[in-house]
Structures are given as C-alpha cells and as structure tokens.
Amino acid sequence: MNRPDQLPIAAAVLALLSLSACVPVLKSRDTRTQAPATYANGATDTTASSAVPWQQFFTDPALRSLIDTALANNQELNILLQEVDIAKNEVRARKGEYLPFVDIGLAAGVDKVGEFTRNGAVEHNLDIAEGTRFPEPLPDFLIAARASWELDIWKKLRNAKKAAMMRYLGTVEGRNFMTTNLVAEIANSYYELMALDNQLEILRSNIAIQQDALGIVRMEKQAAKVTELAVRRFEAEVLKNRSLQFDLQQRITETENRINFLAGRYPQLVARSSADFAELAPDSIFAGVPAQLLANRPDIRRAELELSAAKLDVKAARANFYPALRLTAGVGLNAYDAALLTEMPASLLYNVAGDLVAPLINRNAIKAAYANANAAQMQAVYDYERTVLAAYVEVINQLSNIENLRNSYALRSQQVDALVSSITISNNLFRSARADYMEVLLTQRDALESRFELVETQKQRMSATVDAYRSLGGGWR
After folding, report:
1. Mean pLDDT across 208-221
2. Predicted structure pTM score
3. All structural domains of the chain with their residue ranges
4. Above 50 in pLDDT, residue 440?
5. Region 6-98+154-322+365-471: CATH code
6. Domain 101-151+324-357 has what CATH class?
7. Is the dihedral of CA 380, 385, 388, 393 positive or negative?
8. C-alpha dist (Å) from residue 446 to 197, 407, 417, 419, 421
9. Among 130, 384, 459, 464, whose Cα sits 20 to 30 Å from the Cα of 183?
10. pLDDT attached to residue 21
11. Are the beta carbons of 302 and 380 closer than 8 angstroms?
12. Peptide bond between residue 100 and the one before it cis (omega within 30 degrees of 0)
C-alpha cells in the first residue's frame, strides 16, 4: 500500500506525463531563422523564443533603457528581493537546528539558607575548606559552557532544512516570474504610448483637413450652394475632434506616468521614437515543445519546488511520531570566591546526559500537524497542475492572437487606403455639386476611425508578441 505522502506525488507525475503526451508542438507560422539556444544540460533548441534574453528580444534603445531602470528601481520588485533574502535566512536557521547548540555564560549570585534545614545544618557543621567556615550569605561564581544536540536519526531536521531550501529557490523563481511580468508591462505600456502619439498626430492632420473643408463649405454658403446647416455641422465636427485631442493628451500623460511608476521614478517625459511605430514588425515567436515551456516558465518551476517542499514537510511531520534522542553536556568552573575559579581541579564541574523521548498519550497535536502537511501537499499538487494547464492555455491563446491580428492588420491597412483616397474623391464631388456635405463628413469620419483602428491593431500586434514572449517564460534573464 502506498504511504499517504506518496499519493500526491504520484498524481502529479501522472498528470504531468499525460499533459506532455497530449500537448502538440507549439509553433507560430513565422519561419524566420533563429540562433540555437543552449540550456544548462548542454542541449540546444532552435524554436524556443523564451531562451532569448529580453536585451536581445527588445531592440529599441529607449525601451531597453526603461526596462533597465525598472529592474533596478521598481519598488515591488525590490520588496520581493527582500522576501528572497528572508527565505535564504530561513534556510540558514533550519540548517542550524540540526547542528549542536553551544552556549557559554557567566553567572554570579548569593545564597542564604536557613539553619534549620538540611543545607543549613551542613554548612553549620562543616567547613568549606580546612579552617574556613561557609560564608554567610554564600557567594556563587560560575563560568560554564553548555551544549545540547538533538541527533537527527529520522532526518526530521534535515528534511525541514531541505524544504526551506526548496522554498528559497521558489522565491527566486517568484522573483524571476515578477521580472518577466514587469518587462512585459513596461513594453506593453511603451507600445501603447507610441500608439497614442500616432493617434494624436492622425487627429491633428485630420483636423487640418476638416478645417480646409470648413473653409470650402463657408465659401459654398456665400455662393448660396449650401445652407447654414452644413456650416454648423462642419464646425461641430472640427470642435469635436479638437476636444478629442485633450482626451488623447490625458491618456498620454497617464501612460507616461504609469511607465514612470513601474520604473520607480517621479513623473517625467518618457523618451520614445513614435514616428517609426507603423513600421514596427513584431518579432517571430517560436513556442517550442511543452517540455521547454515547463523548463522556462518561472511560475511552473516555482510550483514544482513548492510541491517538493510540501513532500519534505510531510516527512518531517511524520518523524514527530518517532522518539527523539537529545544529548546535553556542560563543563565549567564553579566556586564561592572568584579568586578560586582557577584552582584546578577543585573548581571544575561537568555533566553529560542523554534523553530518549517519544510522545505517548496526547498525540493529537502531532496528528493534526501531519494531517495539515498532507493537505498542504495536495494543495501543492493541485496548484502545480493548475499552473501548468494555465500556462499551456495562455500560450495557445497568445499564438492564435498573433496570427489573427496579423490577418486583421492586413485588411485594415487596405481599408485605410480606400477611405483616405475617398476623402479626396468626396471633396471633389462636393465642389462639383455631385455629393452633399453629409457624404463628405461621413467619409472624413470613417477615414479617421479606420486610421485610429489601424494604429490600435498595430499596438495589439506588438502587445500580443510581448505577451506570447512572456507566456513562454521569456524576459527574466
């Protein structure tokens, strides 16, 4: 029969094997060549984009500078670094528990006993030294070293230390996971800022076009070709778009400050090259195989380490049912006069003792701790399974998103070309009285919206690439 602590581990292994067996190779349709990545075991892989450090994945100097600043100054990341240090110190504390404890100390005191007691009678009838009576009260000076050591015969303390080590490594992976998310959030905000800059520029150029159209309409009204209604409608459209400028400027300010907050600095101008945003081409994403996903994602590795730590906790909790062997010893100098402490061997004292203690009657607390350790292990199993499944689904979604956005961007580009050329056509038709002013207004409005949507789609393409890179476990190196 399997022991209770073996069942969760077996379930985790079976879940992992079944998942790896049914997961197909993940790969985007882009076949751009990529240099092989070398792993710690010496194997090479030509498909895993997550093996590429973020310094190579992001080539924009301004973006790389922002990420560098954020990794150095982000407060939340620095808080997590302190948690890593705390976990590291916990390992040291656990390691010290199965080593001997040695104390050294000094003590001094006086003691007065009643004459009608055994100790008082002894002091009254005997001399402390030849011709020297017991002092009253009796001083007592002590210099001693004491040692205690619990022999870790059931590996309870060593398993606790190993569990602490696993959790320390888990906090390191947690830091890596947060680094990945921080890099992705900075990159996404940076591309959003560039998109807003482009939308603002598009809006300003569209306002200039509408101002020209408004001038034409006013001249047409003076020539009695249109009514005041047409003039008012064109004026309203110009005013609406001028008002929209302030909305975009506010969003730009907020996005800049979000980047500054992530970078751990006060509000300031964020350097960027927004003029080249439309020409940015998303990098190729190679997903690799499921084994690489499990190896590269820090959150999966952290869940795996937590699972290992939970298994060791169960072993340590079971060891509490077994007898504990403790050794204690002490050696020192003891005398009623400090000047006599160096009188050897008269002032020398020592003791050695061994205890073998096992719980006998009330073991409810130990049983409860053991049950809790088993329940925590099952939690770790479910958390590991959930983390692996969520990672796989996230990668599939992001790769599908990249492909769909690529197709969408191609069609929106054609839509923008058609609507931009229709602005000139509608203006010419309006001048020749072959189109009314509403057709001109609607054409300009549709062209503006389509250009906005094209920029938004480009931003989504860049963000989808970043998110896919993050989902595969890249960005923390």
Report:
1. 82
2. 0.77
3. 6-98+154-322+365-471, 101-151+324-357
4. yes
5. 1.20.1600.10
6. mainly beta
7. negative
8. 20, 21, 12, 7, 12
9. 384
10. 36
11. no
12. no
